[in-house]
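Sequence in, structure out. Go.
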Amino acid sequence: MMELTDFTAQTQVAHWGWTIALFLWLVGLSGMGMFLNNWVRHKALVYVCCAAGILGTLLVVSHLARLLNLPWAAISALLDLSFNFGSWMFIGICLLVVQCVVTFFYSLVLADVIKCECCRKLCAGNPLNWFCAAVGVAATIYSGFLLTQAVGVTLWNTALLPLLWIMSGMASAIGCIELLMVSGRIPAATVAWSRRTALWVEVVELFTIFAFVHVALSSSSSAARMGAQALVSGPQSVMFWLGVIVFGSIIPLSINFTTRNHKALAVSAVLGVIGALLLRACVLFAGYYEPVLL
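Output:
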C-alpha cells in the first residue's frame, strides 16, 4: 500500500527545535510561577521567574532575528510609528517584554537594589501581584496560542494546546517551588498547599494530554493523525511515554500522593520540571505539515 509520504514532501516534520521548546518551557515556568507568587510572595520565586522570563524572551528573539539588530529595528519602528498591531508575534513580544520588565523591577526591589519605600509597598500590595499574575497567565496562554496559529500544522491547531501549556506550566512552577522549599529558600509553612495543588495539577495535566492526543488521532486531518501517531508509537514515543507520562507525570503524582519526604519531593519536583520541557519538545517535534496532493 502506498504511503501518504510518497505523494508530497509537505508531510515532513515542522522545523522548530529545542530553542523554541526551551522558550515555551521558560515562559510557562515564569508566567505560572508569577501566578502562584500571589500565594507565595517570596523573593526566591520571583528571582527564578525573572531569570526564566528574560532567558525565554532572549531565546525566541534570537530565533526570530539577530539580537544586535533588534534594538535598531525597535528604535526605527518607534520613530516611524510603524508598529504592526495586527501581528500576533508583535503582540506576543510586547507581552513578553512587559513580563520581563515587571519581574525585573520586582526583583530589584526585593533585592534592595531599589531602595524606595513606595516601591516596597507596591510590591507587597495586591494590585502589582495580581497584575504580574495576569501578565504571566496571558504570556503562558499566548505561547500555546502561537502554535495554534501555525498554518498547515494541524496537530497544533487545537484550543486544547493553551490549556495544556497552562497545566504543564503550573506543574513546572510547583516543582520549582518545592525545590526552593526543600533547599530551605522558601519556608515550608508558606507553601503547605503545594502538595494537594500538585496532585490535582498532575491529574488535570494527564487528562488534558489524553484529550489532546485523542482529538488529534480522531481528526479528519492526515497531518494531525500523523503527529499524534508520532507521539504514541512513532519517533517521539519514547520521549512522550517515558519522559512525559511516566517520569514527568505518573511518578511525581505517586510521590506526592504517598510521601512528604524532602528527598522524594526533590526527585518529584525535578521530574515534573523536566517533564514539562519534554512535553513541549515532543509536541513540537511531532508537528507535521498538512499534505497537499498534486
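Check: The radius of gyration is 20 Å. The chain has a mean pLDDT of 86.
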